[in-house]
């Protein structure tokens, strides 16, 4: 059962890592609103405040004309032609921007439509409509990965539980003669079940605890490699911070699995 619980624990950690990756991807999906160069900052901030009041909006960040220009110069600092051309201009030609992130990426169109319907005179363009196909496709991929990932986790967990159930059933099968003898001498069903249920509880506690302990050295070795792929979370640190909860889950699942498997397996030999 230890291997079964280790697999279940691994699936839980994979789910955590997957949620972090999906969260990072969702955080990169946004829309940008560009304002004409002569727009006043106070008018832009009024629009920003109205967007932040929308229930679907998670975050709105403002990038001023000067900040956009500084970023542009830094990005092209090795291109003398562009830098010289900017120096000859009388005013900053770049546009202030609002970057908008939604709580749910599928709601970005609602936010874009809100801005479009308001017809703000200082708004030059909204890049959502230019990137709509890409945003919709990426949102669909994220939803599909999340749903299919949960399905895979449940299927693999079910397979692992079936393996554990069969292991316990085989162990009880070897004690079938003892069960038959106890029935012949008039022992009650619960008297016969008791030792096997207790064994299932102890087996679940021991297996869950051992599986939780095994994750510590495994994650200590694997985490540095995972950080290359998922830099936003250190699985070893995460496990340390949630060790009690994680161990409790594994022990709880182990006890339930042990008791349930023992009950079903013994029931076969108690049927009249």
TrEMBL record:
TM helices/strands, residue ranges: 150-175, 196-223, 243-266
Domain ABC3 transporter permease C-terminal: 151-271
Keyword ATP-binding: no
Compartment(s) of residence: Cell membrane
GO cellular component: plasma membrane
Superkingdom to which the source organism belongs: Bacteria
Pfam families the record matches: FtsX, FtsX_ECD
GO BP: any one term: cell division
UniProt entry keywords in alphabetical sequence: Cell cycle, Cell division, Cell membrane, Membrane, Transmembrane, Transmembrane helix
Topological type in the membrane: Multi-pass membrane protein
Record-annotated FtsX extracellular domain positions: 30-118
PANTHER family linked: CELL DIVISION PROTEIN FTSX
Family (UniProt): Belongs to the ABC-4 integral membrane protein family. FtsX subfamily.
Protein name (database record): Cell division protein FtsX
Lineage: Bacteria, Candidatus Sungiibacteriota
